[in-house]
Design a protein that fits this description.
Layout: E1 5-16, E2 27-40, E3 43-55, E4 58-60, E5 70-77, E6 79-87, H1 92-103, H2 111-114, E7 129-131, H3 133-138, E8 144-153, E9 162-171, E10 175-183, E11 186-195, E12 200-210
Antiparallel strand pairs: 1-4, 1-5, 1-12, 2-3, 2-6, 3-7, 6-8, 8-9, 9-12, 10-11
Amino acid sequence: MALTKRTLEITLQTIHVPMTGAGLLDTTSHLLSAELIWPRVGIAQKATSQPCQLQKGEADFENIHWGNRILFKENVEGKFALRITLTEVLDDEELEKFLRAFSGAALGFGADVLAPLYPPFGKLVAAPIDYLAKDIEKYPGPTRLVEGLVELDAADFPENSEESLTIRLVTARSILQAVTRRVAGRTRHEKKTLLAKGEPNGDVTLMIRVLST
């Protein structure tokens, strides 16, 4: 039986992560990565990364420029998987270090002009960066906060259709909080587990549009 083939445009809609581990910080910066696993014969993996900011664990991309929402415009066939990961809180220097490792570009160029137009991306206004699996292995990158994986099939998407897809996220590793206790007159510094590895921690919603061929 012939495999169903589609060309999909996948864009970000919303990010919702209740527990970022950032304490009292309302605004946090992260790197969102998306991977298509075996999207078609001969291609084991395609991936992209996008810097983003969360406001109290939330981000809405509805009014963000398409160039900063797009994750993939890719051909898929038959069964494939889609993985989403979001890093722990990063500062601008850490984000730029990671992105430069794959782009080799001066990401700061024009940022002062573009940043006011795209506030969720701060100083790092850049299109998604494609890279191959072998490149990922060369640079471990920042620690993951949450991750989600879904199994899909090209046949699930009718021609010329458009639909949203919500991917449930779980913690990639335990989220801890430092606490101080007084025991028998002594101060003890301990760590409290807020969420254990694998526990639910929000979701990411994507818009998937099937392009005409």
